[in-house]
Design a protein that fits this description.
By secondary structure, the chain is mainly α. It is about 75% helix and about 0% strand. It has helices at about 20-40, 45-70, 75-105, 105-120, 120-140, 155-185, 185-195, 200-240, 245-255, 260-280, 280-285, 285-310, 315-350, 355-360, 370-375. Helix 3 packs antiparallel against helix 6. The protein is globular. The two termini are about 35 Å apart.
C-alpha cells in the first residue's frame, strides 16, 4: 500500500536551538539567586514547611506500616502531632524556671567574668588603655565636646522572649503542616506514579521515594537518640561537678549537638565561663569544659560512627557551609536543621547519576585507592553497597 504524499505546504519541525554554555550557566545561576531570595524573604512560610517535611520523612514509614495494619493515616498523624506538642510543652515547663533565672542573672554573670579577668595584671592595664584610646577617639575628654546620645537597646530578656515566641509560632505552624502531610499518606506518591509514562519509571520512583524515606528516617531518629544520650551524659556530669542548672545543661547540650563542630565549641565555652564564676580555683573551673569535651569526644569518635556507619558521613566543608547558610537565612532554627536538610539532599543525590558528582562532594567518605579497591573488590572502608542510581531520562 503506497504511502500518502506529504502536502507541499507542510514544514518540517524546527530544529532545537542549542544555547551557549555560558547562557545556560547564567540562567541556572539567576534561578538559584532568585530561589534563595524567595527562601529568605518568605522564611515565615518556608521554615515551618521544611521542618514539617523533615518530620514527615521521619514518621512516614511508621504511618505506612500502621496503615497496612488497618490504622488510618489521619489517626497516626494526630497522635504524632500530639506527642510532639506534649513533649515541647513539657520541656518548656521544665526549663521555664531555670532559663528565666539564668537570663535574669546574665548581666551579673558578665560583670563577674569581667571582674575575674580584669581585676589585676597586664590584662587589666590593657583594658584600661583601650578605654582611654576609645575616649580620645570619641573626643569625650575634651572640654565642650558634644555629648553622644545612646539609644537604649532591648535587654537580653526581651530578646529571649521575642526569640522564644518566634520559635513557638514556627512550631505551631510546623505541627499544622505535619498533620496534613502525614494524614495524606501515599496520596502524593500515588499521584506521582500515575503521571509517569512507563512502568519502569513508576517502579523507579517508588524505589527512590521509599529509599529516601527509610534512610532519612533512620538518620533523624538515630541522631536524635544520640543527642539525647549526649545531653543526658553532659547533664549528669555537670550535676556531679556541682554546676548550677544541670537539667538546662543537658537540654542545651542535646540541642547544640545538632550543630556539628560549632555546637561543641559553644557548649565548652559556656561551661568554662560558668565554671569560672562558680568555682574559686582555675583547676576546678577547668573541669566542666573538660567533662563536656570528653563526652563530645566519645560521642563523635565512637558512638556516632558505630551507629550510623560511613554511609551518611558528610564533608566537613559542606557541613560548615550548611550551618552558615541556615543560620544566616533562618537564625537559630536554621542552624539546627542545616545538617538534616543536607543529609536529605545527599541521600536524594545518591540515587541519580546526573547528581552523583554533587552527592560525592557532600560525602565525607575518603576517596579509595583504585588499586586497593580493585584488589579487594570494594571501595575503601565502605562495606555497605551504594544505593542503585538512576540515570535521569533513561
Amino acid at each position: 500500500m503506497a504511502s500518502e504524499p506529504i502536502p507541499a505546504d507542510t514544514e518540517p519541525p524546527p530544529a532545537p536551538i542549542a544555547m551557549p554554555r555560558i547562557v545556560s550557566v547564567a540562567i541556572v545561576g539567576t534561578f538559584i539567586i532568585l530561589f534563595v531570595g524567595v527562601l529568605y524573604y518568605a522564611r515565615g512560610f518556608f521554615l515551618p514547611l521544611i521542618l514539617a517535611l523533615l518530620v514527615t520523612l521521619a514518621f512516614m514509614p511508621l504511618v505506612r506500616s500502621l496503615a497496612r495494619r488497618g490504622i488510618p493515616p489521619v489517626a497516626t498523624a494526630i497522635l504524632v502531632v500530639i506527642g510532639i506538642g506534649a513533649g515541647a510543652v513539657g520541656l518548656s515547663i521544665l526549663l521555664a524556671e531555670p532559663t528565666t533565672r539564668m537570663l535574669s542573672e546574665a548581666p551579673q554573670i558578665i560583670q563577674q567574668l569581667r571582674d575575674r579577668f580584669t581585676g589585676s595584671g597586664a590584662l587589666s592595664r590593657l583594658v584600661e588603655a583601650s578605654e582611654e584610646v576609645q575616649a580620645m577617639a570619641e573626643g569625650t575628654d575634651e572640654p565642650g565636646a558634644p555629648q553622644k546620645v545612646v539609644i537604649a537597646q532591648p535587654g537580653i530578656i526581651s530578646w529571649a522572649a521575642d526569640t522564644l515566641s518566634g520559635i513557638g509560632g514556627t512550631l505551631g505552624a510546623t505541627l499544622l503542616f505535619v498533620v496534613f502531610l502525614l494524614s495524606s499518606g501515599d496520596m502524593f506518591l500515588q499521584k506521582l506514579v500515575r503521571v509517569l509514562p512507563t512502568l519502569s519509571d513508576k517502579k523507579r520512583s517508588l524505589r527512590v521515594v521509599h529509599d529516601v524515606e527509610s534512610e532519612v528516617s533512620r538518620y533523624l531518629f538515630t541522631i536524635t537518640l544520640i543527642n539525647v544520650g549526649f545531653g543526658t551524659a553532659v547533664g549528669l556530669s555537670m550535676a556531679a561537678l556541682g554546676m548550677p542548672n544541670p537539667v538546662l545543661w543537658g537540654v542545651g547540650a542535646a540541642l547544640l549537638n545538632f550543630v556539628p563542630y560549632l555546637g561543641a565549641l559553644v557548649g565548652m565555652a559556656l561551661a568554662g565561663a560558668i565554671g569560672l564564676i562558680t568555682f574559686p580555683t582555675l583547676t576546678m573551673a577547668a573541669l566542666p569544659p573538660l567533662a563536656y569535651f570528653i563526652c563530645n569526644a566519645i560521642e563523635g569518635s565512637i558512638v556516632t560512627p558505630l551507629t550510623l556507619g560511613r554511609r551518611l558521613e558528610l564533608n566537613p566543608v559542606a557541613i560548615l557551609v550548611a550551618l552558615a547558610f541556615g543560620g544566616w537565612m533562618w537564625g537559630i532554627v536554621g542552624a539546627l536543621i542545616g545538617v538534616p536538610v543536607l543529609v536529605v539532599v545527599k541521600v536524594f543525590c545518591d540515587h541519580f547519576d546526573s547528581l552523583a558528582t554533587f552527592g560525592e562532594f557532600l560525602s565525607g567518605e575518603p576517596v579509595a585507592d583504585p588499586a586497593h579497591a580493585t584488589e579487594n573488590g570494594t571501595a575503601g572502608d565502605s562495606a555497605q553497597a551504594a544505593p542503585p542510581r538512576i540515570a535521569v531520562g533513561q
